[in-house]
């Protein structure tokens, strides 16, 4: 009896442990079976699936936590969205404010999935869904890769586009998640690439060796990665080589014309300078040779007074009428008479020289006292 009493508690304890493990196994479970790695393009939306089931034994409060795991163990995980106490906290993570939401209005019904909208490349990482309802706790991890589709590439040529030269067509996209692949095709004429063309799908180039006129046409480059494609168009015009001899001759003629123009300008400048210098020297010589200017007023006065005296001296009643008709008193000698030498000075009429002073007094003349001078041939 004693042995049996000792065995019964031990067997009963084992049964309790088995039932406990069975309850745990059939308690809180995450039932999602979707892919654990998702690739999306930037700007798109994604659903991170996290479905769960509860057991009657899970009687504690329900807590759902989504976090972005740190790639470095020294950094902390970032909680993105939270459900606790029958309330959702969707603006918990500032970089995703307004872009993350629970898929269900009431997550406690078994749907802890979230939706991310307006994806950015910074949203890439490992996300963990953790569901807790005491005594159960389960979690699920998913890798999200946000890829950037290629930006519109730029097509251009390198090197001279002449016959017989090597022409490189290049296509480059500034944005896009690697790996990027480039492809070229000709869209005009035979729609076949030149036989000498060598294409690099990674570098985005096509090298046309010893190009000919048949290589001219329209080419299209397409940039591709796993989330999108973009393309650009390039028109290639292969021209004949330039006339080197003609270019050299034109350059020589141009240089000669420029030199002639410079020489002509220098000649004109030197001639104008010499002319100014000559005119200046002539002016200086004239100023040195010419005597001081004469006093025309004094000469005119002397000439007039002398003539009047001579004329009045020879007046008589017989010739008074003839003398009165001539305007002798108001006449002023001209510049030529001023410059005339004394020998050419006209002599007073002979009758005027004989007129005596008493006769002049009777005629109403006024005597004037003047000094006798001889200036430049004028007798006063």
Structural notes for this entry:
With 380 residues, this protein is α+β, with helices and mostly antiparallel strands. It contains seven helices and 20 strands. It has helices at residues 2-25, 244-289, 296-313, 320-324, 335-339, 350-353, 357-362; strands spanning 29-30, 37-41, 46-48, 52-53, 62-69, 78-84, 87-89, 100-102, 114-116, 125-133, 136-147, 154-158, 167-172, 181-186, 197-200, 205-208, 217-225, 228-236, 374-375, 378-379. It has a six-stranded mixed beta sheet, with no helix packed on it. Strands 12-13-16-15 form a four-stranded antiparallel beta sheet, with no helix packed on it. The longest helix is centred in the C-terminal third of the chain and has 46 residues, at 244-289. The model is unreliable at 1-26, 297-318, 320-330 and 372-380 (pLDDT under 50).
